[in-house]
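User: I'm new to structure prediction. If I give you an amino acid sequence, what do you actually give back? Let's try with this one:
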Amino acid sequence: QVQLVESGGGLVQAGGSLRLSCAASGSTFSSYAMGWFRQAPGKEREFVGVVTRTGNSISYVDSVKGRFTISRDNTKNTVYLQMNSLKVEDTAVYYCAATWMSAYKLGTGEVDYWGQGTQVTVSS
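Assistant: Good question. You get back a string of structure tokens that encode the predicted 3D arrangement of the chain. For your 124 residues, that looks like this:
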């Protein structure tokens, strides 16, 4: 069992930055691909990005490429989402996700564990 706890959400003006963190319980963090999804009001949850178990490969949805950066620290059981140049359309609840071994599965939505979500609101 893995528990994921996100933090770092909040209200920011367009063009600003936020850094989300996701702390994972357990001793097998490095066995999980980690990622982020988001869900805007009235919309389905969408994939944002994923990092492989070792952190050597990262993928993003096109809408955040060049603005968002995912990283992980396996010594701290934590994954991060650095969000720069935020836009109003980035407003959503952001969820941390973990999938055993496979970044590909996570990217397709096959998620083993979800965090509780953290609200990010970008004002114009």
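You can read the tokens as a compact description of the fold. Here is one thing that stands out. The mean pLDDT is 96.
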